[in-house]
Each structure stands twice: as structure tokens, then as C-alpha cells.
Specification:
Layout (H helix, E strand, L loop, with lengths): L29 H9 L35 H14 L1 H30 L3 H36 L5 H10 L1 H22 L3 H17 L3 H8 L3 H11 L4 H12 L3 H18 L3 H39 L21
Length: 340
């Protein structure tokens, strides 16, 4: 039964769509919505560029949609994160490369200072390299997640974005992103420590960890895209994932296996460089730390881009973000972009 109110044909009110203009879920087809809204100069999304009838989300980007604003299939959820990464690959690579180079330099600097302080002893140098790498991996994941989510939401909005805009938006959400990273790291370590003594307890611990990560997957997107406080972002992320926790957990596990594809080429590159530089201590330390940091960067970028795609999918399914009303607004409250 169609409960949509029938609009009159008087004034500037759009005519109600006929049965052939609705899909199986009762959504107005985009072409029909755009035609009905063209008379008033307003886009079907409810916003238009100044002086034109072009949707604001399309201003500055005339290319095709990277992420379609509609419910997505599981295959699309696994595939579209890489399209998001490719759309602004130069900007993303610049920020990720800056973080990677800084992390490698920090590891080598701390290890060198430790070597000078201990007279070149092997054990203190190894511990210094390992502990510094762990800390830099954590910081690098935070940096890559924030940058990727900021750029990814701009790609979804089809908005131009530069380095200065990325830094400004990342600075605005710095404290809640740090809090999110701390909570995610703490829960992950806690579950792995509790489940690691026995194989029979490790598998349920991993499944529970994947479920928790699926629930909180969209927290960075809510923080950056909606400027929400951390507690509100966590509640909203849990609400968006309600009823789909286990499918999201499966998707999270599948995407966590993606960095394994990089192990072979990165290991081959490390072996090639080791043949050139020899088996000296500093060369081996730099190569091992560099491989760990590079894998952490790739994993964080893929996970953050997938979180952006999941955020769009869950908003479409729960809030009707993709519903387009002629001459009105789209979805529940419209699409909130990166710069609300």
C-alpha cells in the first residue's frame, strides 16, 4: 500500500510520480526525480549549486560516481574501497608516504640513540627497534585512517579536496580519533590475550573481535562526516550496524586478509635490497621495520576506505539516504558531507 502523500499540480509543487517511475522499494527513479525537480531549479537531493540546477555533490567533479548512493551488495562492499583509494591516489599516497617516511626515520633514530647509549649491544638495539616500531605502527594507523576517511568522504561527495583541507578537517577531529584508536587497540589486545592460551578459545575470541570491529567500523566516518562527539559517534555506529553485525564481521575478516597479498612482493623487494646492502645489522633493522610499517599502512588504508563504503550502505538501508523525492530532500536529513 502506497502511503506517500499525493502532491497537487498547482503552483511549483511537483506532480506525483506514476507507478512506472518507482522501483520495487518505492523509491523514485533518479531520472524522474531530476525531471520533476528541474522546473524549480532544485536538484533531487534537495541542494543545488549557486545559480544552477546542478546538485552540490557534483560541483567540481564531473566524473562518474565512485560509490553509488544506494544499498550495496557484499561484493560491492568488498570491491568499492579500492575504487575510493584509486580516485585520489596521489593525494592519499602523499600523506601516507609522509607518515611512512616519518615512522621509519623515528625507528632508525631511536635505535641509533639506543646503540650509542649501550655501546652497540645487540639485545637493547633489538628491543628498541621492536618497541619503537610498535608505537609507530599505532601512530601510522591513526594517521592513515584519518586521512583516508577524510579523502574518502570527499570522493563520495564528489567534492574537490586538497592537502590544506585534509589537514584542517583532520585537526578538527584529532581527539576523538585518538580515543577511537585507543579503544580499538585496547579491546583487540584484551580479546587476543584472553583467547590465545587455547586454540579452542582463540577462534571465538577472533570472531568476537571481528563482530566488535564491525559494530565500530563507521565511527571514523561519523566523526569526520558528521562532526559528532566520540560517544555519540559510537552510539550512531552501533545503530547503523544493527542487524548486520555478523556480515560486517565477515567482511572485516575478508579485508584483513588483503594485506597478505602484499607480503610476497614486499618480501621480495626486501630480499633484493638485502642482497645489495648485505646482512649488516642496520640494513636488516631498516628493512624489517620498513616492511612492518608498509604493511600497516596498506591495511589501515583499506580498512578505512571500507568503513566509508559501509557508512554509505548502512545509511541507505536504515535511513533511506538514496530515496529521492522530487523537489524535496533526499533520505533522512540529506547527505552530510565532510564539512558539515
Amino acid at each position: 500500500m502506497n502511503c506517500r502523500p499525493a502532491a497537487t499540480a498547482t503552483g511549483n509543487s511537483p506532480l506525483p510520480p506514476d507507478a512506472g517511475s518507482l522501483d520495487t522499494l518505492g523509491r523514485v527513479l533518479p531520472a524522474v526525480a531530476d525531471q520533476a525537480a528541474s522546473a524549480s531549479g532544485t536538484s533531487a537531493s534537495g541542494t543545488s549549486a549557486p545559480g544552477t540546477g546542478t546538485p552540490a555533490a557534483q560541483v567540481g567533479d564531473s566524473g562518474p560516481e565512485t560509490v553509488p548512493i544506494r544499498p550495496l551488495t557484499w561484493r560491492e562492499l568488498a570491491d568499492l574501497p579500492f575504487a575510493v583509494l584509486q580516485r585520489q591516489i596521489r593525494l592519499l599516497a602523499a600523506f601516507a608516504g609522509l607518515g611512512f617516511a616519518s615512522a621509519v626515520a623515528a625507528v632508525l633514530a631511536v635505535t641509533a640513540l639506543t646503540s650509542l647509549a649501550t655501546g652497540g649491544a645487540s639485545a637493547p638495539d633489538a628491543w628498541a627497534a621492536v618497541l619503537t616500531t610498535v608505537v609507530c605502527v599505532w601512530l601510522l594507523r591513526w594517521w592513515t585512517t584519518g586521512v583516508t576517511v577524510t579523502i574518502g568522504l570527499a570522493v563520495v561527495n564528489r567534492q574537490p579536496i586538497g592537502a590544506r583541507a585534509v589537514l584542517g578537517r583532520l585537526r578538527a577531529v584529532l581527539p576523538p580519533l585518538v580515543a577511537h584508536q585507543l579503544v580499538v587497540t585496547g579491546t583487540g589486545l584484551g580479546l587476543l590475550i584472553l583467547g590465545s592460551p587455547l586454540i579452542i578459545t582463540l577462534i571465538p575470541a577472533l570472531i568476537l573481535l571481528a563482530r566488535l570491529r564491525g559494530q565500530r567500523w563507521t565511527v571514523p566516518s561519523v566523526l569526520v562526516g558528521e562532526s559528532a562527539p566520540y560517544a555519540g559517534a559510537v552510539l550512531r555506529a552501533k545503530l547503523l550496524s544493527t542487524g548486520r553485525e555478523m556480515p560486517l564481521a565477515g567482511l572485516w575478516i575478508a579485508l584483513r586478509l588483503v594485506p597478505a597479498l602484499f607480503i610476497a612482493p614486499i618480501a621480495g623487494l626486501a630480499m633484493l635490497l638485502s642482497d645489495i646492502s648485505g646482512t649488516h645489522r642496520w640494513a636488516v633493522t631498516g628493512l624489517l621495520c620498513g616492511v612492518a610499517l608498509l604493511l600497516a599502512t596498506c591495511a589501515a588504508a583499506v580498512e578505512a576506505a571500507a568503513g566509508v563504503v559501509v557508512y554509505i550502505d548502512r545509511r541507505c538501508r536504515r535511513e533511506g539516504l538514496d530515496i529521492r523525492i522530487p523537489g524535496g530532500f533526499r533520505g533522512s536529513g540529506g547527505f552530510q558531507g565532510v564539512g558539515r
